[in-house]
# Entry
Amino acid sequence: MQSSNHRLRDMEQHHPLLSAGADVETGSLAAGVMVGGPHAGHTAGNRTMWFIQDSCGMVCAGMTWFLVLYAEFVVNFVMLLPGKNFWYSLLNGATFNSLAVLALASHLRTMLTDPGAVPKGNATKEYMESLQLKPGEVIYKCPKCCSIKPERAHHCSICKRCIRKMDHHCPWVNNCVGEKNQRFFVLFTMYIALISAHALGLSGMHFFTCIKVQWNECSDFSPGVSVLLLIFLCLEAVLFLTFTAVMFGTQLHSICNDETEIERLKNEKPMWERRMRWDGMRAVFGGPPSLQWCNPFTGLRLRRLLLLSHARRGGSEFSV
# Structure
C-alpha cells in the first residue's frame, strides 16, 4: 500500500519510525488484555489479566512453583523446625520464607504482566493516515499479527504478538520478558538465586551438625529419608543458583547497555538514544535507587479477584 503521504513495508525487523511509547488505541494495553491465551486481544474499558495459554509454559511455571515449595518444605520441616536452637531456626526461617514469598510474587508479576504487547490488527488505512507522516517516511508492519511495529519491537511466535523491547520468551515464567515486566523478571532471578544460596548454606550446616550427633535427633524423618530430601534440595539449589545468577547478571548487563538479548544476538545497530548504566536502571525500575526497586508489589492495585467468568463480565480487576 503506497500513497503520497506514506509507504508501508511488510518487515519483520529493522527500525521503524513509530515511537515505542505511542499509544495506538484508546487506553493502555495493560488495561485491556483479557485472559485467553496467545490470541488474547485488546478490549477497551475492561481491565483484565494478561495470561498466555501455552502448554509448555504453564508446565514450566508449575514446576517452578513446585520446586520452590519443595525447598520450603525441606528447609522448614526437615532442617529448622526439628532444631533445638530456637533463634537459629526463627531467624533463618523468617529470612528464607520471606525471600521465597518475594520470589514467587516476582514470578507472578512477570507472568501476569503485559510485557509490552502491540495491539493486533492496527495496521489499517485509517490509522496510518492518522499518523500524518511526512512524504518518504517509512513505518513497518508485522505480517504475522498485522500490527504496526514500534521501534525495537519484535514478534513472539508463542505470544503471537509484537512485544516492545522484547528480550526473550521465558517458559519458566510463561511470558515474554519485555518493556513492562523486565524489572519483575530481574527480581525473580535475584530472589531465586538468594534462596538457592541460603538453602545450600542451611543444608551444609545441617549435614555438619547431624554428623556430630545422632541423625534421629536432627530430624523428625528417618535418616535415609532426610538424606535423600537434602541431596535433592542441594542439587536443585545448585542448578537454580547457577542458572538464575547467570541470568541476573545478563539482565543487568542488558539494562545498563540498553540492549536486549535479541538485539545483541542479531547484532542490530542502535538507532535510538541509548540510556547507559544508571539511566537504564532508572528507566526499568522506576525512579532513583531505593528499596522500592526490590519490591515486586510496587504499583500493584489488587481490587478484587473473582472467578474468570466474573472477570469477563468486568466484575474483576487486576491492574498493574
User: Anything to note?
Assistant: Residues 1-46, 304-309, 311-320 have pLDDT under 50 and may be disordered. The two ends are 37 Å apart (CA to CA). Residues 223-256 form the longest helix (34 residues). The helical segments are 55-80, 86-112, 125-130, 182-212, 223-256, 261-265, 278-285, 308-312.
